[in-house]
Design brief:
Elements: E1 5-10, E2 27-28, E3 31-32, H1 33-43, E4 51-55, H2 59-65, E5 73-76, H3 83-89, H4 91-95, E6 100-105, H5 113-125, E7 130-136, E8 145-148, E9 154-158, H6 165-168, E10 172-181, H7 182-190, H8 206-212, E11 217-220, H9 234-254, E12 258-259, E13 265-267, E14 271-273, E15 278-279, E16 283-285, E17 289-291, E18 296-297, E19 302-303, E20 308-309, E21 314-315
Parallel strand pairs: 1-4, 1-6, 4-5, 7-11, 12-15, 13-16, 14-17, 15-18, 16-19, 17-20, 18-21
Antiparallel strand pairs: 2-3, 6-10, 7-10, 8-9
The structure holds uridine-diphosphate-N-acetylglucosamine and calcium ion (CA).
Calcium ion is lined by residues 105, 107, 230, 232.
Length: 322
Amino acid sequence: MSQWRAVILAAGKSKRMKTSVPKVLHRLCGRALIDYVLDVVTQVGVPDENICLVVGFGADQVKRYLAHRPGLRFVHQEQQLGTGHAVACAGEFLARHDGPVLVLAGDMPLITAGSIERLMQSFEQASAACAIGTAHVTDPSGLGRIVRDAGGGFERIVEEADADEQEKKIREINTSIYAFDARQLLGALEKLRPDNQQGELYLTDCPAILQDNGATVLAVAAFSELEALGVNSRRELARAHRIMQDRIIGHWHDQGVTILDPHTVYIDARVEIGPDTVILPFSYLDGPAMIGRGCTIGPFAYLPPGTTLADNTRWEPNLSTR
Ligand code: UD1
Ligand code: CA
């Protein structure tokens, strides 16, 4: 397999979050949104030296947060003129590379490495210029729709703001995860024009530009509806939180931990738990923390960050009253 690079878009102002904190630094189960995206990019084999983050709004905060990974590269997007413009800011990084590149939005913490690998494989097998990661969803509102031709092939992506009534009914959406050939992507970026409702340079126009040039473009339904959830608002952050909690608790179930009432238990993503530990209802396990084997926690327990529990510890709150 060829050496991949990755560009992660994280410059947006996150208007809908109504926040002074860069969106990608908002926390999900104790970790920043960007941590989850970096995890999967690392898992699919891209080293930090080959990852470029496009930062803008709150750039210093993002760089400070990621200072423990000195290999990462950063480029600045001074004005947020659209996702296409954001990728163009990484132009030098792309121009140094004659090979494939993943482009991802930094606000998608639920994506998994397996799905990205499927996208990368489809891209390589077809010798494509672009493979768009798509998902079939029940509620596509707000998202870019995948328009296909009569034969089921890719035609173009249409953003919600530019879609007509028929197009709005399409439930296959653009996840904002793409594989591109770096050289061809650069060529397409040069041709972008802000002739759309939002007056932005849309990355979503690049696939059709490439296809019109005769290159191979695929739309690959590699992602599940849950993975496709981008965090654009506090409501979506809460939804992502619930899904991530289900994943974390499911993981600990599989590792031999008893959690009888998952919906009243919170477990930070940075908590480690030994098998045969029992977590009783209404318990909040902050992280990072290390919990040994055979412990019992709760009911009604708060475990502060930094806690280490030896095997067979009983951790319960002091419930004595008056
Ligand atoms: C985008 C896609 C849409 C897709 C959706 C999936 C475009 C035009 N639309 O819409 O087709 O269905 O993602 O979630 O690409 N960003 C920058 N600089 C900018 C603008 C955005 O870095 O100038 C970053 C944001 O920080 C974010 C990512 O790009 O991480 C996506 O931007 P966002 O505004 O969230 O796009 P959507 O409206 O979600
Ligand atoms: Ca988004």
